[in-house]
Specification:
Blueprint: E1 19-30, E2 33-44, E3 50-54, E4 57-58, H1 64-67, H2 69-75, H3 79-89, H4 91-114, H5 127-138, E5 149-153, H6 159-165, E6 170-175, H7 179-186, E7 192-196, E8 209-215, H8 224-231, E9 235-246, H9 252-264, H10 269-278, H11 280-290, H12 297-308, H13 318-327, E10 330-338, E11 342-349
Parallel strand pairs: 5-6, 5-8, 6-7, 8-9
Antiparallel strand pairs: 1-2, 2-3, 3-4, 9-11, 10-11
Helix pairs in contact: 4-12, 5-6, 11-12
C-alpha cells in the first residue's frame, strides 16, 4: 500500500475517512521509481471499524476483521473487545455480508487458482489485447489516459491494471477474492494499486475517479442494479462509467447451460471442479478445437468455472442497463461492444450529479 491510497480510502460501512497505523514498511523500486510501501498496518474507521493491511494490500471487506483476526489480535491491543462489540452492534449486517459473499468469493478464488499467470490468456486475450479491449470498451485512447485516475471494480487477476498503468494513468484495482494477492505480488508498475473490497460496499471517496471500469462483475452479485448503484457515485462529474454485462440469448445450448448451473452452482466447489473437469471440459475442448479455438485446457477451465460455479449469473437487456445509467445522472450512453455472451455500455456523468 502506497501513501497515495490513503486519501482515497473510506470505511465501507460508515463512509468515513480512515487513519493508518503502520506496523511494517519497506522501500520498493518499480521501473526505477523508489517509494515507501506499507507491508503491514491497521486502518481505523468510525464506530470501532478496523481493517488490516496484509501483504501490502488494504483488506477492506466488511468481514476482513474476522478473516484476519489472528493478525489483528497480534498487533492491536484490545482487539478481542473491539471484535465482540462490532459483532454485537452490527450482527445483522455482518451475517448478511458473510452469507452473500461466501460462495462467490470461493468461486472466483478457485477460478484464479486454476489460471497460470505466466502462460495463460485472460478470456482469449493476451496482455496487449486486454488493453485494446479496455480502450474499445471505454472509448478511451492511450493519449488521453496519462494523468487519469481509474478504478477497476472487480479486477480478477490484475493483469489489465498493470497494462493500463503503463499508459501513464493511475489505477486503483479491487476484488473481493484472494486473487488480489497474486496481482499485488506480480505488479511491476508503481501506478497500479490493489485493494481487497466488495463492489457492493466500495471503500472509496465519492466522485473521485475519471473512469470507473467494471467488467463482468455486477452480474455475479445478488442484485446487479443495486451493485451498479454503489459504483456510480464514485465517478466524478464529467467522468466515465463503463460496465460489461451478460445479455439474454435465444441459443438452446446457452439456455441449457444456464439451467444446469442453477443446480450445479449449489454443489461443493471441489465437487463442481471435478464434475466440470471430467464432463464439460473434454467436450468443450473438442468442440473448440474443431472451431479453431486455441485455448489451452486451463483457460477453458477458467471459462467453465466463470459460467457454472458463481452463485449468481444475471442477464440484462441493453435497454435495461441504459435505464440504470440515465437514472443515476449519466448521459451520452453508448453500447460500445457486443458479442455472443454480453455487451459493454458506457455513460458520462452529467455535471452536478451526485449519485
Amino acid at each position: 500500500m502506497q501513501d497515495l491510497l490513503l486519501p482515497l480510502l473510506r470505511c465501507p460501512v460508515t463512509g468515513s475517512p480512515l487513519t493508518l497505523t503502520v506496523i511494517k514498511q519497506s522501500v520498493i523500486t518499480r521501473q526505477d521509481q523508489p517509494y515507501n510501501q506499507v507491508e503491514e498496518g491497521i486502518l481505523f474507521g468510525e464506530n470501532d471499524w478496523v481493517y488490516p493491511v496484509v501483504g501490502a494490500i488494504p483488506r477492506l471487506n466488511i468481514e476482513s476483521f474476522l478473516d484476519h483476526a489472528g493478525f489483528l489480535e497480534q498487533y492491536l491491543p484490545g482487539f478481542a473487545v473491539r471484535k465482540e462489540k462490532l459483532l454485537k452492534e452490527n450482527e445483522v449486517l455482518i451475517k448478511k455480508v458473510i452469507k452473500k459473499n461466501k460462495r462467490t468469493r470461493e468461486s472466483f478464488s478457485k477460478e484464479w487458482k486454476v489460471y497460470d499467470y505466466d502462460q495463460d490468456k485472460t478470456f482469449l486475450a493476451d496482455d496487449a489485447q486486454m488493453l485494446e479491449r479496455f480502450l474499445t470498451e471505454t472509448g478511451a485512447t492511450r493519449l488521453a489516459l496519462p494523468g487519469k485516475l481509474i478504478l477497476d471494480a472487480g479486477c480478477g487477476n490484475g493483469k489489465l491494471d498493470t497494462m493500463i498503468a503503463g499508459t501513464g494513468a493511475t489505477v486503483i484495482a479491487f476484488d473481493f477474492s484472494n486473487s488480489v494477492q497474486q496481482a499485488q505480488e506480480r505488479n511491476t508498475n508503481p501506478n497500479a494499486h490493489f485493494v481487497q473490497a466488495d463492489v457492493q460496499f466500495p471503500p472509496f471517496a465519492l466522485q473521485s475517479f475519471d473512469i470507473v471500469h467494471c467488467s463482468g462483475v455486477l452480474i455475479h452479485t445478488h442484485n446487479t442494479e443495486y451493485s451498479f448503484s454503489r459504483i456510480a457515485p464514485l465517478v466524478k462529474s464529467g467522468g466515465l462509467l463503463s460496465t460489461w454485462l451478460y445479455h439474454p440469448s435465444k441459443d438452446l445450448i446457452h439456455n441449457l447451460f444456464n439451467k444446469i448451473r442453477k443446480i450445479t452452482s449449489k454443489l461443493p466447489l471441489g465437487f463442481q471442479y471435478n464434475l466440470y473437469r471430467f464432463t464439460i471440459l473434454p467436450a468443450s475442448f473438442i468442440i473448440k478445437r474443431i472451431k479453431g479455438n486455441k485455448q489451452n485446457s486451463r483457460e477453458m477451465m477458467v471459462d467453465i468455472l466463470d459460467w457454472f460455479s458463481p452463485e449468481f449469473r444475471w442477464e440484462h437487456t441493453h435497454e435495461e442497463a441504459g435505464g440504470w445509467f440515465a437514472k443515476h445522472g449519466f448521459g451520452n450512453i453508448k453500447i460500445t461492444t457486443v458479442n455472443d455472451f454480453g455487451f459493454n455500455i458506457t455513460g458520462v456523468k452529467k455535471q452536478g450529479t451526485a449519485s
